[in-house]
Design brief:
The structure holds 2 protein chains of 2 kinds. Chain A is α+β, with helices and mostly antiparallel strands. In chain A, 37% of the residues lie in helices and 12% in strands. In chain A, a hairpin with a 2-residue loop joins strand 6 and strand 7. Chain A has a 5-stranded mixed β-sheet with strand order 2-1-5-3-4. Chain A has a two-stranded antiparallel sheet with strand order 6-7. The termini of chain A are far apart. The longest helix of chain A is centred in the C-terminal third of the chain and has 16 residues. Chain A is elongated and about 60 Å long. By secondary structure, chain B is mostly helical. The longest helix of chain B has 31 residues. The chains are: A alpha+beta, B mainly alpha.
C-alpha cells in the first residue's frame, strides 16, 4: 500500500515545528506502524536526509517507550494497543496519516516525535514504592491476599507508563497514570501502610511537574494501550480524601 | 495550608459545592412550581420564604460561600489546565469527551452572568422596578404578576432560556462527573451515574423552562 505521511518535525524543545509531508510506498498490511516508519527512515537515509526521530524499545507493547499521536488519537485507531502493536491493516492504500508527538507541557519535545517523559519518573520517585528492607523474596502464602484485591492490584499494575493518558487528556493531566500507581499499591497490605503519604506525595509531584487537573473527559481510558480503568481515578480521589484524615 | 498538601481536594471541593448548588436548584425548581397554583400559589410561597428571617439570610450566606468556592476553583483549575496543555494537536480526534465536558468553564460563566441578572431582576427588582412593587389582594408581594408579566417580554424569556440551556449543558457533564471526583464510582455504577447526570440536567431544564414557556403561551393568567 502507498501512503502519504504528514510528520511533525522539530529540532529541540524551543525550536519551531512543522508538519512535513512524505510518501511511502510498498507498505505491507502486516507491518507494524513502527516498521512502516523504519521503511520511511531507510529511504530518507539513502537520500542523505535526516531520518525521523521516534522512540521505541521492545516493540511488544510492554515497555511503554513508543507513543505517537496518529490522526489525532494517541497510539492510533487500534483498540488497547500501543503504537508498536498497531498494524498497517488499520489503514488503506492512498490514506494520508498525520503523526504528531505527545503534546503536554510536562513532556518537552526532544526531537521530531520524541518527547522527554522524565516527569513520570519524578512522580514514581516521589513515592511510587513501598519502604521495606529488600532481600530474598518472602515465602509464598505467608501473607494471604484475597483474589479480588490481588486482581485489582494487578489490573492497576498493568500500566506501562507510556504517557498516552496525559497526551490524550484535554487538560494534560496524568491522573490515570498516578491513579494506576497509587491503586496498585493501595490495594495490597504491603502498600497500605504508606498509602496516605504516597497519595499526597505523588499528586503533589504531578502538579509540580506541570500536569493539569482531571475534569473527567475520560479520553485517557480510551487511549490507554493497557485499558487501565477509570475506576482507579475514583479510587485515587477516595485515597486522597482518606489521606486528609490520616495526615 | 491543607490544600497545598492535598491538591486533589480542590477538585473534590468543586464537586462538593456542585452537589450543594444542584440541590439548591432542585429545591428552587420545586418551589417555582407553586406558580401553577400548588400550595396556595407562588405569592404565599414567597411570603413564607420571606418570613423565615434569619434562617433565610443564613441560607443565602451559605449559598454565596458555596458559589464563590465553586467559581474560584473553576477559574484556578481551568488556568492550570490551559498551562498544562499549551500546544494543540494539528489533528485531534476525541473519543469519549463531549461538547458539555469541554465547555464547562464557558457554560459556567454564562450561568454566573445569568445569575447576576436573575438577582437584579427578581430579587433586587432593579431591572424592571415597575413590576417589582406590585401587591396582590392579600397585600403580599405579587410575585405571580411580576414573573408572568416579565416573561411575556420575549427578550426576558430569551435571556432566561439562554441561562437555562447553559445550565443544562453544565449539569449534563457536572452531575455525573461528580461521582467520579467524589470517589463514588465503580465499573458497575458508572453507566447509572451517566444516566442520573443527564436525567437531572433534563429535569431542571424542563422544570425551570416550563414557567417562561407557559407565560409566553398565555397559560398563566
Amino acid at each position: 500500500m502507498d501512503l502519504t505521511l504528514r510528520i511533525w518535525r522539530q529540532n529541540g524543545a524551543e525550536a519551531p515545528g512543522r508538519l512535513e509531508e512524505h510518501a511511502v510506498t510498498g507498505v505491507e498490511p502486516d507491518m507494524s506502524f513502527l516498521e512502516m516508519l523504519d521503511v520511511l527512515n531507510e529511504t530518507l537515509l539513502k537520500e542523505g536526509r535526516d531520518p525521523v526521530t521516534f522512540e521505541h524499545d521492545c516493540r511488544e507493547g510492554i515497555c511503554g517507550s513508543c507513543g505517537l499521536v496518529i490522526n489525532g488519537i494517541p497510539h492510533g485507531p487500534g483498540e488497547r494497543s500501543s503504537t508498536c502493536q498497531l498494524h498497517m491493516r488499520h489503514f488503506k492504500s492512498g490514506d494520508t496519516i498525520t503523526i504528531e508527538p505527545w503534546r503536554v507541557h510536562s513532556f518537552p519535545i526532544l526531537k521530531d516525535l520524541m518527547v522527554d517523559r522524565s516527569a513520570l519518573d519524578s512522580i514514581i520517585q516521589s513515592h511510587g514504592y513501598i519502604s521495606v528492607s529488600t532481600g530474598s523474596p518472602p515465602d509464598a502464602g505467608t501473607r494471604l491476599i484475597g483474589k479480588p484485591e490481588a486482581d485489582q492490584a494487578m489490573d492497576a499494575a498493568e500500566c506501562i507508563g507510556c504517557g498516552a493518558c496525559a497526551a490524550a487528556c484535554p487538560n494534560g493531566s496524568a491522573m490515570l497514570f498516578v491513579a494506576a500507581k497509587v491503586s496498585h499499591l493501595a490495594s495490597l497490605p504491603q502498600g497500605r501502610i504508606e498509602a496516605a503519604e504516597r497519595v499526597r506525595d505523588m499528586t503533589r509531584t504531578m502538579f509540580s511537574c506541570g500536569f493539569g487537573n482531571c475534569s473527567n473527559h475520560y479520553e485517557c481510558e480510551a487511549a490507554c494501550p493497557k485499558g487501565i480503568s477509570l475506576k482507579f481515578i475514583a479510587k485515587l480521589n477516595r485515597e486522597s480524601l482518606k489521606a486528609l484524615f490520616r495526615g | 495550608m491543607i490544600l497545598k498538601d492535598h491538591l486533589l481536594l480542590r477538585k473534590i471541593l468543586m464537586a462538593g459545592t456542585g452537589i450543594l448548588l444542584a440541590l439548591f436548584l432542585l429545591g428552587h425548581m420545586l418551589g417555582n412550581t407553586t406558580i401553577f397554583g400548588f400550595y396556595g400559589g407562588i405569592n404565599a410561597y414567597a411570603h413564607h420564604i420571606q418570613g423565615l428571617g434569619p434562617l433565610l439570610w443564613l441560607i443565602r450566606l451559605v449559598m454565596l460561600a458555596v458559589l464563590l468556592i465553586h467559581v474560584f476553583f473553576a477559574i484556578v483549575l481551568t488556568l492550570e489546565n490551559r498551562k498544562a496543555k499549551p500546544n494543540r494537536y494539528q489533528v485531534r480526534a476525541y473519543q469519549r469527551t463531549d461538547f458539555a465536558g469541554r465547555t464547562m468553564i464557558y457554560t459556567g460563566l454564562i450561568i454566573l452572568a445569568f445569575l447576576l441578572y436573575h438577582l437584579l431582576h427578581f430579587t433586587l427588582g432593579l431591572t424592571n422596578p415597575d413590576l417589582y412593587h406590585l401587591q396582590d389582594s392579600a397585600g403580599r408581594h405579587d410575585v405571580f404578576s411580576m414573573v408572568v408579566r416579565s416573561f411575556q417580554n420575549i427578550f426576558i424569556a430569551l435571556a432566561y432560556t439562554i441561562g437555562l440551556v447553559a445550565l443544562f449543558f453544565h449539569l449534563s457533564h457536572g452531575a455525573y462527573s461528580l461521582f467520579q471526583t467524589m470517589g463514588w464510582n465503580s465499573d458497575r455504577f458508572m453507566p447509572a451515574t451517566e444516566g442520573f447526570g443527564k436525567g437531572l440536567a433534563v429535569l431542571l431544564l424542563v422544570g425551570f423552562l416550563l414557567i417562561p414557556v407557559s407565560a409566553l403561551l398565555g397559560l398563566l393568567a
